[in-house]
Specification:
Shape of chain A: rod-shaped
Radius of gyration of chain A: 37 Å
Shape of chain B: globular
Strand order of the largest sheet of chain B: 3-4-2-5-1-6-7-8
Helix content of chain A: over 70%
Strand content of chain A: under 5%
Order of helices and strands of chain A: HHHHEHHEEH
Largest interface: A-B, 21 and 24 residues
Number of helices of chain B: 13
Distance between the termini of chain B: 11 Å
Largest sheet of chain A: 3 strands, antiparallel
Bound molecules: adenosine-5'-triphosphate, magnesium ion
CATH class of chain B: Alpha Beta
Strand content of chain B: 15-25%
CATH topology of chain B: Rossmann fold
Number of domains of chain B: 1
Number of strands of chain A: 3
Structural class of chain A: mainly alpha
Oligomer: heterodimer
CATH architecture of chain B: 3-Layer(aba) Sandwich
Largest sheet of chain B: 8 strands, mixed
Helix content of chain B: 40-55%
């Protein structure tokens, strides 16, 4: 921003005129004072604008921070789904994710979805203690998780009987609703930021 | 129950013919044998067996209420041997469903294939032969995963084996099964060999070829089946060894069967 008197006189012309026309000096000073006042006003306005912009940026940053925190919290709470590391969705997964000695056990778990070591042992014909060890190994690999209340191992991705499928569908709907509410929440935050800007 | 699958990198190597003929020969020996068509992309086992199956493996993969019993077709009455088959659907829509299957459906399919395996085993089947789609189709890999022996079928006139080689290094190295190469449609100077027996000069050629493949693939060549015009002529209309049990081709399949059973 440049502060310049409204009349077209330059500093040089002022110097010359002050020497030659003392009467005009007063008028010139009055004009200059006016001009300075106008300039100061516009400077103040401009500073106010900058201040407002800073406030808006602050509000946006705060919304972004809240959104990130909110999404991080959600992510931490998320149940393992189709995209978890442990998901076995094809024969290729069986081959790639589990070492050879655990594959038979894993195949049984893919079929049963949830089972105790004894149940697995009955299927594979191996001993319960061996299967228990294998299940623990699969758990350490992140392929299986343990149901806390029953001690049964559960495979991450689910596919079950019709009634269980229905349960799963409900869960899915809930998850979708949750996602909708996340979207709403973010939209609300964005609106707050817009309001702050106005 | 033991499972033997036939697979290849490229199409048209003879997987379906070898599967069906091997299953027939095992059943003729008195073994209760099932053949599963897991070639959902280009099924032709139905044509080979001369039937049209209403309920197929495709239905089993999508309908949890179906069991192996619902999809198995028995040839016991027709051929007087304990031969059974489950087919892949030739219905365009159902073939499309397989191609479009999402992750969840893929997992269901794997689960149902595993269940079918257990069901066949519980029902006293001695052998299950699996015919697959060429290449690394997911359904083919599901079949390979449950196999005790895998036959990689190579057409002997196909000299570009770089693709096959990379599939072997990347996929076969992960498999739990015993893996063999079957050289099919082998051609030498006198072709087909008289009475199915190579002349000593031709035998040398064939052995040289087997050695090259063995060195390239780092897999054993379990057998080399000559190219027989009669087999090609009959095409995919019937199971050759059912109609011509004495033909050298049928004897080669018998030899293949014996070698496979010995290794299991
Ligand atoms: N040993 C053989 N001698 C002569 N012809 C053969 C022989 N083996 C197979 N064929 C012929 O090769 C053709 C292809 O065989 P087949 O359909 O079994 O191959 P495939 O590997 O199953 O093919 P796709 O990959 O398309 O399923 C058939 O027409 C069959 O008659
Ligand atoms: Mg075929």
């Amino acid at each position: 921003m440049t502060i310049r008197p409204n009349n077209s006189d330059t500093d040089e012309s002022f110097a010359n005129s002050s020497r030659s026309k003392p009467d005009n000096t007063l008028q010139y000073m009055i004009n200059l004072q006016k001009d300075l006042k106008t300039a100061a006003d516009s400077l103040r306005l401009e500073l106010l604008g900058i201040h407002k912009e800073i406030e808006e940026i602050k509000a946006t940053v705060s919304v972004l921070k809240d959104s990130i925190e909110y999404l991080c919290d959600r992510k931490a709470l998320e149940k393992p789904g189709d995209d978890t590391v442990g998901a076995i969705t094809s024969g290729l997964d069986l081959l790639q994710k589990a070492p050879q000695h655990l594959r038979r056990t894993l195949q049984v778990m893919v079929q049963l979805n949830s089972a105790t070591a004894s149940q697995v042992a009955r299927r594979t014909g191996k001993s319960r203690s061996l299967e228990s060890d294998y299940l623990n190994q699969l758990e350490r690999l992140g392929i299986l998780s343990r149901k806390d209340d029953t001690g049964k191992h559960v495979i991450f991705v689910h596919e079950r009987t019709r009634s269980e499928e229905a349960d799963e569908e409900n869960e899915e709907n809930e998850r979708n609703n949750d996602e909708d509410s996340t979207r709403e929440k973010i939209q609300q935050m964005q609106q707050t930021a817009r309001d702050a800007r106005q | 129950m033991k499972i033997i699958s036939f697979h290849s990198y490229k199409g048209g190597t003879g997987k379906t013919h070898l599967s069906a003929n091997l299953a027939t020969i095992l059943a003729r020996k008195g073994f209760k044998t099932a053949i599963l068509d897991l070639d959902f992309r280009g099924p032709n086992l139905q044509t080979l067996c001369g039937i049209e199956s209403e309920v197929t493996i495709n239905d089993l993969l999508f309908d949890p209420d179906l069991t192996g019993q619902d999809i198995l077709v028995s040839f016991e009455d027709q051929y007087k041997i304990p031969l059974f088959a489950a087919f892949a659907s030739t219905d365009f829509r159902k073939m499309g469903d397989i191609v479009r299957a999402d992750k969840k459906q893929r997992q269901r399919s794997l689960k149902r294939i595993l269940r079918l395996r257990d069901e066949l085993s519980e029902n006293g089947f001695d052998y299950t032969i699996i015919d697959t789609s060429p290449g690394v189709q997911m359904e083919s890999i599901d079949g390979l995963v449950i196999s005790d022996a895998t036959c990689l079928v190579l057409k002997a006139d196909d000299f570009d084996i770089s693709g096959t080689k990379s599939m072997v290094t990347q996929l076969y190295s992960l498999l739990d099964s015993k893996n063999y190469v079957v050289l099919n449609r082998v051609v030498a100077e006198t072709c087909p060999p008289e009475e199915g027996v190579w002349s000593s000069a031709d035998l040398k050629l064939v052995e040289k070829f087997e050695k090259t493949i063995k060195d390239e693939m780092r897999m054993d060549v379990i057998t080399s089946i000559p190219c027989f015009c009669e087999v090609a002529r009959e095409g995919s209309r019937n199971i050759f060894s059912l109609k011509h049990p004495e033909h050298p081709f049928s004897q080669y399949i018998e030899k293949l069967g014996n070698a496979l059973l010995k290794g299991l």
